[in-house]
């Protein structure tokens, strides 16, 4: 997996911090050096590393942990926050009518990603078409046509046309009734003027809603200059980092993203059409650092702030029979604030229905570690698996377990609990009192933990 060695050395550093009896200037210096070394080894851009380590050192020296937090935990928190600045603000590709243009060099994964995106939108219920405008690679037309057949989505191309703008304009016209049009463009072996001219012309002629840079995670230091040149030419609105399943160091691509200030929308995690993950920087970083626990720790410092509508929407989804792992995941994400989900998880399934007895501290701790484990497991699932839990067979379970560093038994237990939760939800569907109770408890963050009556 990309960034594996970075993850290893950063985790080592974090272990050192938690093992330290106190954090003095010496320790801070060592930790900063550790982080620097780890990032440089992963191909993160030198300038970025220096900025980050300066800020890390300054904060660790000047800032004091809030009451109730140890110096060690606070140091970890600062590292987490500083690393997060590399990844930038999260932003999602919006589900709407749009034209998406993919750009990038040869072999980065443009055509494959075009197919994956088509599948993504198709599954979200938006009609989508693929336009082949790579006029340079002999096999490009066939490759995209083949993908579109596999995915059963419309395809447009003109085999002998040498002007990509003509192809795209004709394609957009032919696909005008479709909501999402995805345009695959040519790459080159390396960045040159011809390529820049070509994508500039296309951008100008079709004025796409999104220009997505497709970049391979194995790309090194040249990633930054490439991304900047392309960004200057056509204005990149988002990035897809591919081949995250490979052995690249990853730091080059991340530095590039940081330098153009564009959000990463997706990660490509394999050659198949399902191997696409929505990128979430916090999740990504926690996974990298192996920080299930830190998240919980940080969560206790945040305020609950869930609106009536959000609670309502989550409830309807919880209680609809269509509930899938992705919904469960999204709900966990949304409610992964002051331990709400931890409590919710413990209070809902099976035994913990309204009126069930109060939960003790041990139960809670178990629930907490179970939840963070489950999130790590869910992180290792593909879109397809999250949306189709029933399709998760033994082979997939083995892969998910391997990818998340968890046991197969843990994956199976998550799937079992998911099924139980889904069934319970369905069973409780008509019960308005229960629904009201659930909603108010989600909003107050007070899940089954009130002093008066346990889970009810
Ligand atoms: N392992 C892996 N391979 C990928 C991924 N994305 C693309 N590829 C492979 O990379 C190669 C180049 O991809 P392609 O889409 O043709 O790149 P393009 O030249 O930019 O259009 C193909 O063999 C793809 O199967 C990914 O996320 N993971
Ligand atoms: Mg291609």
Describe the structure in your own words:
- The chain is of the alpha/beta class and 456 residues long.
- The protein folds into three domains: 4-88, SRP54, nucleotide-binding domain (Four Helix Bundle (Hemerythrin (Met), subunit A), Up-down Bundle); 98-279, Rossmann fold (3-Layer(aba) Sandwich); 302-444, 434 Repressor (Amino-terminal Domain), CATH 1.10.260.
- The chain contains 20 helices and eight strands.
- It has helices at residues 4-19, 25-41, 46-62, 71-87, 110-123, 140-151, 164-174, 193-206, 223-234, 251-260, 281-289, 292-299, 308-319, 325-334, 340-347, 361-379, 383-387, 394-404, 408-427, 432-444; strands spanning 98-103, 128-133, 155-156, 180-185, 210-216, 238-242, 264-268, 276-278.
- Strands 3-2-4-1-5-6-7-8 form an eight-stranded mixed sheet, sandwiched between helices.
- Helix 18 (394-404) crosses helix 19 (408-427).
- The longest helix has 20 residues, at 408-427.
- It is globular and about 70 Å long.
- The protein binds guanosine-5'-diphosphate (GDP) and magnesium ion (MG).
- The site of guanosine-5'-diphosphate has 19 residues, from helix 5.
